[in-house]
Amino acid sequence: MSMSQTESLDLDALWALRQHVMESGRLLTIELDDRGLIRDANMAFRSRFAGFDRVSGESPWRFLRIDEEARDLLANLPPRTPVALMLRETEDGEAYCFHAYRIAGGTLLIGEIASGVENEIVERMGHLAIQMSRLVRDLHKANHALAQANGLNEKLARSDSLTGLANRRYFMERLDTEVRHVRSRRRKLALLMIDLDHFKRVNDQFGHAGGDAVLVAVADLLRSQVRAADLPARLGGEELVAYLLETGLSAACEVAERIRLGIAELRPIAPDYRVTASIGVAELRDEDDPESLLKRADDLLYQAKTGGRDRVVAASPERAPARAELATQRLSGNHRRDPYGRV
């Protein structure tokens, strides 16, 4: 038997079953649309509840009583899982046992008058179904909240709480991964080690709140000057770092100089208080591991500090862009050229 013949038999069977329940003189059948309004109802239902009048477009709850929990259960019926409900006539209170089924575009309710024994049993089943539906719904909500909390906890575990940058642990994990990838693919990677100059004076003069404001402003600037593939981080205190993927020493020095000049323009705590930074720039070498790369960048940062601060020092000074030249470019508007190749 072919697939098309099987599908035809299935459709024929569904048609026959629908005709049976719709034409039944004993079963009460209501078909609801996706809004919960009556799309169709059989003669047995209309004769009992509507004096044979058409009821399409009416709410079934004009004829039957339903509480909010059962209404919520109907609105969230699981597929291929009939739910038993005990509903009562609005006028004389007679009880009916209905089974609800989810169908394409709505719900099918099939019921009949309930006997006393059925009334008690089905009513218990209905209450149990409602309770189970509520428990499943609450479980879904709890799982969703837990997933959100886990996502938040994971983000907090890898982020610095003040600046939102990556923290030292997460940065070192990512750097280790990227160093291995870069080495296996013969690509470039550069590291910027950044330290804010005379940061203790900021805390002494403006308090820790002032120091925090400076760190947040610098972190925002750093984020804006690197690409999504790069990773800026706060190692601790006023020491920041960033690795730049697919970036050689010359381009990394230009990025560092742009960051240095940008920091000098910040005024996060007072209009007349200028913040400066010293930056060491190192490019990954064949013999490097993450720790040795970080140490070389830190040594270059130390040279920038001892050389007068507010400057960029690279592994090969002759390859680093001259600060005076970059400053001239910046004043003339050429500083808008992006060392990454962006405009």
TrEMBL record:
Its EC number is 2.7.7.65. Gene3D superfamilies: 3.30.70.270. It catalyses: 2 GTP = 3',3'-c-di-GMP + 2 diphosphate. Residues 187-317 form the GGDEF domain. Its cofactor is Mg(2+). SUPFAM superfamilies: Nucleotide cyclase. One of its GO terms (molecular function) is diguanylate cyclase activity. One of its GO terms (cellular component) is plasma membrane. InterPro entries: Diguanylate_Cyclase (IPR050469), GGDEF_dom (IPR000160), Nucleotide_cyclase (IPR029787), Rev_trsase/Diguanyl_cyclase (IPR043128). Residues 314-327 have a biased composition (Low complexity). GO terms for biological process: cell adhesion involved in single-species biofilm formation; negative regulation of bacterial-type flagellum-dependent cell motility. Residues 314-343 are annotated as: Disordered. Pfam families: GGDEF (PF00990). NCBIfam families: GGDEF. PANTHER family: DIGUANYLATE CYCLASE DGCM-RELATED, REGULATORY COMPONENTS OF SENSORY TRANSDUCTION SYSTEM. This is diguanylate cyclase. It comes from Thiorhodococcus minor. The lineage of its organism: Bacteria, Pseudomonadati, Pseudomonadota, Gammaproteobacteria, Chromatiales.
